[in-house]
Design brief:
Blueprint lengths: L38 E8 L2 E2 L12 E4 H7 L8 H4 L2 E9 L3 E2 L3 H18 L4 E5 L12 H13 L4 E6 L7 H4 L4 E4 L8 H17 L12 E7 L15 H12 L4 E7 L12 E7 L2 H17 L10 E3 H9 L7 E5 L14 H8 L10 E7 L1 H10 L4 E6 L11 E14 L3 E8 L2 E6 L8 H5 L10 E4 L6 H6 L2 E6 L34 E3 L4
Parallel strand pairs: 1-4, 1-6, 2-5, 6-7, 7-8, 12-20, 13-19, 13-20, 14-18, 14-19
Antiparallel strand pairs: 3-4, 9-11, 9-21, 10-11, 15-16, 16-17, 17-18
Helix pairs in contact: 3-4, 7-8
Length: about 525
């Protein structure tokens, strides 16, 4: 378990969009009856968990932040900032992991208990910021965020205003909704607005507490219009870079801007967990009950009506066809290929070695005239062997397939140790093994490769490579800018893009594309906690 103040393992270094696109500032003055300096706690647990991956996320998967280290994690809560100065903040504990398999029950238990103990030891609170992802699974449990929110609510008491911000790939069940007062989600995929969204959640919380109803626990709770839309699609089909998601998400800030509306959010849901809560959702929060119900229902119907129009963000092809396309485009260099089925930032184990085996078997890559970077496979034993051999040595390794065997199990990799890089906070020790034209990156711990620096720190130049194969789905911004050509390879793993062959058994009836019969009513319900 990582407990330092650095960026959590593999955490996306998100780009910032204009604040006006996602929230409105500055804070309004404190109104008569409002709380001049409310006492606000911060805590949460965030991970995206594939229940189809054999990987188990234990203590080692999480970066834990407490106290001032947690405060400094949020760029909008730096000392002297408006939001920092507007409240007495009580940062308890927030645990965060890159996506992976389900969380070990004992890991979840101690994290949850620490949060509850912190709440009880530091009470009372006026408000609470619950920082979660929305797609956490725990071995033996379902709807874990609702379980956490319910426990937090019991510890806080009914009068405390709770605000939460989530990934748009999270899930919003009625059970979760009933435990919080304000809830919102990212509006961009890739998540370039992550920090803006978290800021908006805190801004809205402060706004309610500073308003004239700040001392009236029930009056300060806005109404919430909610509905689930029975559609469950992978993120690679719902990127906001392309239609129809681009137009659907463009509606969200328009709804938020209406008089009587405080916030609006649209969730795609998480496709690689087999739980009843997994489906799209809409929440509109505000004061005009009829308006928020109408707008939530309208947005839900727009999403449902577009269900057949969602397509992959790039050409989605079998791996061999993706490689053939790259070889046929010598002027498109570097050519990126997404090894999508084992994407660790969607929940894949990160050690399925089938793709690497296919690359090593291709005769085009044997003589080194075409350079291919493969990022990456985590295999601590293979890394130790390479380190023991040293740079320049020849090694014969069995790589990957130890956590998720996939269709190939471990793959034989014979080549030269090109580089050894130690001390990465995410990956630990990393080695590059060169076999012909294939430059295979092996890491001691799970790490996604999203940034140019992830490669250059190993002595590799992705700009000079012919082909770069990355365990990812849609490309993060730096890789998107890098790619002169791109195919999304349909590869095996715990986040297989072919959802129908994964074997979901616990979704509610009627979820598209698993069930294509029937038409849902899509009428939002309006609730307010305490009514």
């Amino acid at each position: 378990m990582n407990t330092d103040a650095n960026e959590q393992p593999g955490e996306s270094r998100t780009m910032t969009v204009e604040a006006s696109e996602v929230w409105s500032g500055p804070l309004d003055p404190v109104e008569d009856g409002g709380l001049t300096r409310p006492r606000i706690g911060i805590a949460g647990i965030a991970i995206e968990s594939s229940t189809f991956s054999p990987h188990i996320s234990g203590d080692e998967a999480f970066t834990v932040r407490r106290g001032e280290t947690l405060m400094s994690y949020y760029p909008f809560l730096t000392p002297g900032s408006e939001l920092r100065s507007a409240a007495d903040w009580v940062p308890l504990m927030q645990s965060r992991s890159i996506p992976g398999g389900a969380v070990a029950a004992e890991t979840y238990a101690w994290m949850k208990q620490e949060i509850l103990d912190g709440i009880r030891a530091n009470a009372p609170f006026d408000g609470f910021y619950l920082d979660i992802h929305g797609a956490m699974s725990v071995v033996g449990m379902t709807d874990v965020e609702a379980d956490l929110a319910h426990a937090v609510r019991e510890a806080l008491g009914s009068d405390v205003l709770v605000s939460t911000a989530m990934d748009l790939h999270g899930n919003v069940s009625r059970e979760l909704l009933d435990e919080v007062d304000l809830i919102t989600a990212y509006r961009m995929a890739p998540h370039e607005d992550e920090w803006n969204t978290k800021e908006r959640a805190v801004f809205n919380l402060l706004g309610q507490l500073r308003s004239s109803v700040g001392n009236d626990p029930q009056a300060r709770r806005p109404f919430t219009a909610w509905l689930q839309v029975p559609v469950l699609l992978p993120g690679e089909k719902t990127s906001t870079r392309i239609e129809p998601a681009a137009s659907l998400y463009a509606e969200v800030p328009k709804i938020e801007a209406l008089d009587g509306v405080l916030d609006a959010a649209l969730w795609v849901g998480y496709a690689w967990a087999d739980e009843p809560r997994c489906q799209a959702a809409v929440v509109v929060t505000g004061y005009d009950r009829a308006l928020i119900q109408a707008e939530a229902s309208r947005l839900g119907r727009l999403y449902w009506d577009a269900r057949d129009a969602f397509e992959f963000v790039a050409d989605a092809l079998p791996l061999d066809e993706s490689i053939a396309a790259a070889l046929a485009a010598p002027d498109a260099r570097p050519f990126l290929i997404s090894d999508s089925g084992d994407n660790p930032t969607a929940g894949g184990a990160g050690d399925v070695s089938w793709t690497l085996g296919r690359l090593l078997a291709r005769p085009e890559f044997h003589d080194g005239s075409i350079s291919v970077i493969h990022a990456s496979i985590f295999d601590e034993a293979a890394v130790e062997q390479a380190v023991a051999a040293g740079v320049g040595a020849h090694v014969d390794l069995l790589v990957g397939g130890r956590v998720d065997p996939g269709p190939s199990g471990p793959v034989a990799l014979s080549g030269t140790v090109f580089s050894i890089t130690e001390g990465d906070p995410d990956a630990g020790t990393q080695v590059v093994i060169v076999a012909g034209g294939v430059q295979a990156i092996i890491t001691a711990k799970r790490k996604p490769f999203h940034h140019i620096a992830d490669f250059t720190m190993l002595g590799l130049d992705p700009h000079a490579a012919d082909i770069v194969v990355v365990k990812i789905g849609y490309l993060e911004p730096e890789l998107y800018d890098l790619a002169a050509g791109w195919k999304l390879a349909l590869t095996p793993g715990g986040v297989d893009q072919d959802l129908l062959r994964l074997g979901h058994h616990h979704l509610v009836p009627g979820v598209f594309p698993f069930d294509t019969t029937g038409t849902p009513s899509l009428d939002a319900i309006v609730v307010r906690r305490g009514d």
